[in-house]
Amino acid sequence: MHLRAPAILISARPHGETAVIARLFTEESGVVAGYVAGGRGRQLRPVVIPGNLVEAEIRAKSDSQLPFARLELSQSRGPWLSEPLPASAISWVCALTASVLPERNPYPSLYNALSALLDAVCNAPSARGWAPALASYESLLLRELGYGGEKPEIAGLGQALEILDRLEPQIARYLLADTRADVLAARTVLRQRLGRIDG
Q1: Of 87, 79, 76, which Cα lies nearest the Cα of 44?
Q2: By CB count within 10 A, which of 26, 45, 49, 94 is most buried?
Q3: What 3-state class would DSSP assign to 139?
Q4: How confident is residue 149, by pLDDT bands cut at 50, 70 and 90?
Q5: CA distances (Å), 86 to each of 109, 138, 189, in order?
Q6: Is 37 helix (H, G, I), strand (E, B) or coil?
Q7: How far is CA 62 from CA 1, 2, 65, 101, in A?
């Protein structure tokens, strides 16, 4: 296996003393896990942040081997991680995507939607600008993984929050039933913060 492609880093788990196991979401190959040597070192620590857009080179000698990944930062989400609401949104959508998508299955529409959502979270003047995109992304994720639902028409923040509330039981039941509760806890924090701006 040899892959070089833009990717969204959706999770990074420490491995050994300095390495990281990164899960990378690519448009054509879907989610690919890779071993990033020195991922917790001073040079790569700012690169290996969920939500970052990276240029990934992934190599493996066989399909049964965990690939080695080399990452170059293309776009950092780091500046927004000090802001509670954007940080919660980035954390939630990356954790959700990393938890539910099977490896090496392409989902180009989800890749493009996640990329657009992360851009909106980081560039919109407030959550009113990206909350509808968040509700659309969750809805698209359910549809792409075979749990139905229609594409919602979202007029503004209030309607986006109603849709988010309606989607939560489906996400918990269908997408996160076999995973740890801490993934859904990230969504709970985000929803509480969104509720404060709607009040």
Answers
A1: 76
A2: 94
A3: helix
A4: confident
A5: 22, 16, 12
A6: coil
A7: 7, 10, 5, 22
Q: Are 84 and 61 in contact (CB under 8 A)?
A: no
CA distances from 189 to 25, 105, 144, 184 (A): 24, 30, 25, 9
Q: Which candidate, 37, 32, 30, places its Cα nearest to that of 14?
A: 37
Average pLDDT value for the chain: 93
Mean pLDDT of 128-140: 96
All domains of the chain in start order, with CATH? 2-75 (2.40.50.140), 79-198 (no CATH)
**pLDDT of 34-64, one tens digit each?**
999 999 999 999 999 999 999 999 999 887 8
Q: Residue 32's closest CA among 52, 14, 5?
A: 5
Q: How crowded is residue 158: how many other Cβ atoms within 10 Å of its Cβ?
A: 12
Residue owning tokens 């109603």: 162
